[in-house]
Design goal:
Helix 4 links the parallel strand 1 and strand 2. This protein has a domain of 42 residues. Helix 2 packs across helix 3. The protein is mostly helical. It is 35% helix and 4% strand.
Length: 185
């Protein structure tokens, strides 16, 4: 820039740095040099957390990428609502999005992401809406998260055997997260 060398990083460089992937000239002590390195976000690192073997993770990733390569991006991920019911589900979605982007599947006919949940896509929605949202009782209907309501008001949280520290990211500071899950609800 104006005769000077300026270091720049594209979004892909930043993403790779976040995942600890070594890139030419951008390495360091905290990046993996192989899938077997026990550094965050490598297949080896996830094995002790998920129970999925390094070999299986690599196999699935290569098969998905190979299919995308052969079909010019026609690899698709189909996800329903089940993932939404788990802690840290946003990370699962990010993993799917990144895999699709890395493999060139975004915007390809027959590729990409097909997300479905269920009831909100009912064809006879006019008849279903009054039942689902209590429109036949009083207007406007009051909506709330019933899962949280009943979890709190039936004292289910008192019998929780899972600690907050057990569902944290392995990289989180466990000292900052004490107490019960009701404290996070």
């Amino acid at each position: 820039l104006n005769g000077e060398k300026v270091a720049v990083a594209c979004v892909f460089d930043l993403l790779c740095a976040n995942y600890g992937i070594a890139r030419e000239g951008l390495g360091g002590e905290n990046v993996a040099s192989s899938y077997e390195d026990n550094i965050p976000y490598t297949p080896k690192w996830q094995e002790s957390i998920t129970g999925v073997s390094v070999e299986k993770v690599i196999q699935v990733a290569r098969e998905f990428a190979n299919n995308a390569h052969i079909t010019k991006g026609k690899s698709m991920i189909i996800i329903g609502a089940a993932m939404n019911h788990w802690y840290h589900m946003d990370m699962n979605y990010r993993a799917a999005i990144n895999m699709l982007a890395f493999c060139g599947c975004i915007g390809q006919s027959g590729g990409g992401w097909s997300h479905y949940v269920g009831q909100e896509k009912l064809r006879p929605q006019t008849g279903w809406t009054p039942l689902a949202f209590a429109l036949d009782w009083v207007r406007p209907p009051r909506q709330q998260n019933s899962t949280s309501f009943f979890y709190a008001h039936t004292d289910q949280w008192r019998y929780e055997t899972l600690g907050v520290d057990e569902v944290l990211s392995p990289l989180a500071d466990k000292e900052k997260w004490k107490g019960s899950l009701i404290d996070c609800n």
